[in-house]
Recover the amino acids of this structure.
């Protein structure tokens, strides 16, 4: 499984700086570091809907809060 996080300047300042920390902590908390590949990409040209995060090819937009990021991670990584 792969998580891709947009590290373009718009997404980064709008929340992906914090989302990166949340994702890293979540992977550590649930011992998923060896099962999940975490990758950063530069702009995906969806800036107006950022911050953007992709999990196994499914893009999530406007991931602008800790609770929203955690809910996505729980749904996609724990309920599989």
């Amino acid at each position: 499984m792969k998580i891709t996080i947009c590290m373009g300047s718009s997404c980064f300042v709008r929340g992906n700086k914090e989302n990166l920390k949340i994702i890293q902590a979540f992977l550590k908390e649930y011992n998923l570091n060896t099962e999940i590949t975490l990758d950063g990409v530069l702009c995906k040209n969806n800036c107006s809907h950022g911050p953007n995060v992709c999990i196994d090819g499914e893009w999530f937009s406007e991931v602008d809060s800790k609770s929203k990021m955690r809910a996505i991670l729980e749904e996609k990584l724990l309920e599989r």
DSSP finds two helices and four strands in the chain. Residues 9-29 form the longest helix (21 residues).
